From TrEMBL:
The keyword Oxidoreductase applies. It comes from the Eukaryota. It comes from Penicillium frequentans. GO terms for biological process: fatty acid beta-oxidation using acyl-CoA dehydrogenase. Pfam families: Acyl-CoA_dh_1 (PF00441). Residues 4-140 form the Acyl-CoA dehydrogenase/oxidase C-terminal domain. Keywords: Flavoprotein, Oxidoreductase. This is Acyl-CoA dehydrogenase/oxidase.
Length: 156
């Protein structure tokens, strides 16, 4: 999860650097509103994932002394699935911003081509995203019902 988030950051950083230098229509690509919007959307997804991963790492660190919360497994499954999705979004964004250079195995687009080609290698070994989402929801529903019972709300 941490490595996948870092790979997404590398892709987005390379795209950011590229659009600052690359010109089109007489000005740098970064001056195009659609380019800035695409970077902002991927950046917000990546930053949200990074904060979530940091929080989960902290929770796991504290769990060694205080025990893991029952919903931790579900949250980890959600984050693991989300990390692959965010990597896919960031890598796709980077390749699109690199344009034709994003498909070349040499030159300016070499890194993007490799990262984009390896996205499935990061997503597939993590397990089926649908299965991880289902696991997470089942565990969270169980935790919710247990908490509701403890508060005297038996019908949930």
């Amino acid at each position: 999860m941490i490595g996948v988030a870092q790979t997404a950051r590398v892709a987005l950083s390379a795209a950011f650097d590229y659009v600052l230098k690359r010109g089109a229509f007489g000005k740098p690509l970064m001056e195009q509103a659609v380019v800035r919007n695409r970077l902002a959307r991927c950046g917000s997804e990546l930053e949200s994932l990074s904060v979530w991963v940091d929080q989960l790492v902290y929770t796991m660190y504290k769990a060694k002394d205080h025990g893991a919360p029952p919903e931790l497994g579900g949250l980890l499954a959600l984050a693991k699935a989300r990390a692959g999705i965010v990597l896919d979004e960031c890598a796709r964004c980077a390749v699109l911003l690199f344009g034709g250079n994003g498909y070349t195995r040499t030159g300016q687009g070499e890194l993007m081509e490799k990262l984009y080609r390896e996205v499935p290698a990061a997503r597939i070994p993590g397990g089926s995203e649908d299965v991880m989402f289902d696991l997470a929801i089942r565990q969270l529903v169980k935790s919710y019902r247990n908490n509701a019972r403890a508060m005297g709300k038996e019908k949930l």
